[in-house]
């Protein structure tokens, strides 16, 4: 880990912290919630040894990157703007990079590929498939209709509410609950019973997650809090409004999608059929493969790093 370099880059009006290692074609690694650049530690080391330059930013609002206060600053347009400016600074104006995204990072990677396919050489996304914009209904209304008010995305909407509830539990405990979540279904955060059990219930760390890993995440979130990450969710409806011009648009970059069969995203309403019956291919026509890994949950690149590293290398070698 000490061989990974760190620097701060000015992009799109903010300061962005970047971890990187290696020389060669750039692989841009985009994390999700509640993660940081650190979620890609295994990929950074492996890809750099295979002849790539692995670049993992803390996305805007996370870790050591700058955090504009308003949720309106966290739409896909702003965040993709950060990444285009980052590529300009690190690779050169107009140059391409390979892209890998997980969770919210996958959502952002889909948007980067939609808005600026000229900057994406090839794409691998983990956990979250591309979901086309539904012009008939806003995202939060859809989530409430399907899952109810206690669905985690709905609970994140009210400014200050989840922050206060998480504060009662403690930052480290909240992160433990998220990082070890393996229930193959929607996550509900019921007030007074957030994760479905008493918060003094012992949490057994899986083999892929160490106390030191949790300590690193906790050290950053203790400083920043969770509001920055919530802002991505709080901007969902605004993002829906701003992306109306892309309704029905296709993502035209070579792509591969990987998900674990225990991932809460894979087990949400309609996702399995959407992936298995070719629904995503209509919107991602250059999608070359969908891989469903058995016995793997949400944090797939941490739980099975060697397999994910091999999948990344095998796919990107084609380009």
TrEMBL record:
PANTHER family: EPOXIDE HYDROLASE. Its EC number is 3.3.2.10. It catalyses: (24S)-24,25-epoxycucurbitadienol + H2O = (24R)-24,25-dihydroxycucurbitadienol; an epoxide + H2O = an ethanediol. It comes from the Eukaryota. Pfam families: Abhydrolase_1 (PF00561). The keyword Nucleus does not apply. Epoxide hydrolase involved in the biosynthesis of cucurbitacin and mogroside tetracyclic triterpene natural products (e.g. siamenoside I and mogrosides IV, V and VI). Cucurbitacins have cytotoxic properties and exhibit deterrent taste as a defense barrier against herbivores. Mogrosides are nonsugar highly oxygenated compounds used as high-intensity zero-calorie sweeteners; they also possess pharmacological properties such as regulating immunity, lowering blood sugar and lipid levels, protecting the liver, and acting as antioxidants and antitumor agents. Residues 25-304 form the AB hydrolase-1 domain. Pathway: Secondary metabolite biosynthesis; terpenoid biosynthesis. One of its GO terms (molecular function) is epoxide hydrolase activity. It comes from Punica granatum (Pomegranate). This is soluble epoxide hydrolase. Coiled coil: none annotated. Keywords: Hydrolase. Belongs to the AB hydrolase superfamily. Epoxide hydrolase family.
């Amino acid at each position: 880990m000490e061989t990974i370099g760190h620097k701060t880059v000015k992009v799109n009006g903010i300061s962005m912290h970047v971890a990187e290692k290696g020389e060669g074609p750039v692989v841009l690694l985009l994390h999700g919630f509640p993660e940081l650049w650190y979620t890609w530690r295994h990929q950074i080391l492996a890809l750099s040894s295979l002849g790539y330059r692995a670049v993992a930013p803390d996305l805007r609002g996370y870790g050591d990157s700058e955090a504009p206060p308003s949720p309106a600053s966290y739409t896909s347009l702003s965040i993709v703007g950060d990444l285009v400016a980052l590529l300009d600074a690190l690779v050169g104006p107009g140059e391409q990079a390979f892209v890998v995204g997980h969770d919210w990072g996958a959502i952002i990677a889909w948007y980067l590929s939609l808005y600026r396919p000229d900057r994406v050489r090839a794409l691998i996304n983990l956990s979250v498939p591309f979901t086309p914009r539904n012009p008939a209904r806003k995202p939060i209304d859809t989530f409430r209709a399907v899952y109810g008010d206690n669905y985690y995305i709905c609970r994140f909407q009210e400014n200050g509410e989840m922050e206060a509830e998480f504060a009662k539990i403690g930052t480290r405990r909240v992160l433990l609950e998220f990082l070890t979540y393996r229930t193959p279904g929607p996550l509900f955060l019921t007030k007074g019973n957030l994760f479905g059990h008493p918060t003094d219930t012992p949490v057994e760390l899986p083999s892929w997650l160490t106390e030191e890993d949790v300590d690193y995440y906790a050290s950053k979130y203790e400083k920043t809090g969770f509001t920055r990450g919530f802002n991505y969710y709080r901007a969902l409806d605004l993002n829906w409004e701003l992306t109306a011009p892309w309704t029905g648009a296709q993502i035209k970059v070579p792509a591969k999608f990987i998900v674990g069969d225990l991932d809460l995203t894979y087990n949400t309403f309609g996702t399995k059929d959407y992936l298995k019956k070719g629904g995503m291919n209509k919107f991602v026509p250059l999608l070359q493969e969908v891989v469903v890994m058995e016995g793997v949950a949400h944090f797939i690149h941490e739980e099975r790093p060697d397999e994910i590293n091999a999948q990344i290398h095998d796919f990107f070698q084609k380009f």
